[in-house]
Design a protein that fits this description.
With about 250 residues, this protein is mainly alpha-helical. About 65% of the residues lie in helices and about 0% in strands.
Length: about 250
Amino acid sequence: MLPKRSRRAAGRKACQDDRKEAGDDWLSAENWAIPPTDDDFHPSTDPFGPWVSGRPVVLEKKVEFIMADRSLVHVAFYAALIAALGLVPPVAIAFLGGVPITAQTLGVMLAGVMLGPIRGALAVLLFLFLVALGLPFLSGGRGGLGVFMGPSVGFLIGWPVGALVAGWIMQSTRELNILLAAAISAAVGGILVVYAIGIPCVAIMAGLSLPKAALGSAVFVPGDLLKVALTAIIVQTVARGLPGAVLSRS
């Protein structure tokens, strides 16, 4: 079926032909070719209207608003997930000045791998912002600016950077199997990058040499490798059932 404008133009052309055959030559095509105005079209009733009248702005802005809202929801959801994982009791390492082993690194890995670099980093930054405001979202019920003055500050700083790197690697490895890509992304972003920032800060804040701080941090590695495996399995499962939820691949 022709769009409304095409049907209108066809009707006008037929009338012109009939009048000309009757001898009304004064009625030229220009007199009948009334240009359509924007009021002739409405996005809800005539989907071709905005494009025909040269104004694709209406629907484009609607799509932009929908995508922005969707991004905000995902960022907020993963920030809440990281906070929820803080309910798992931490295991403090006395040798490293009390730096705890927590489950929240799993949320950081998932945020980066699932959301991509920008959204993933924003989710972690939102979480840290809420912690800085005093909300007890860190494992063990910790919160406030004081947590950024302790030995674990380097790992907290490394979280958004790790999520950024994990998301970037996930986007850059589209040709790889999603399970393998997720595992590599989580390992590099969630372990290597976070440790590269966290260990020097531990050494400075706890008064340790860098080799001793690195050796002491090795106790985190087995648990983090388990989180990498869980991240890869979760991402693959979600990708099979709801591919659109893996925004780093969409």
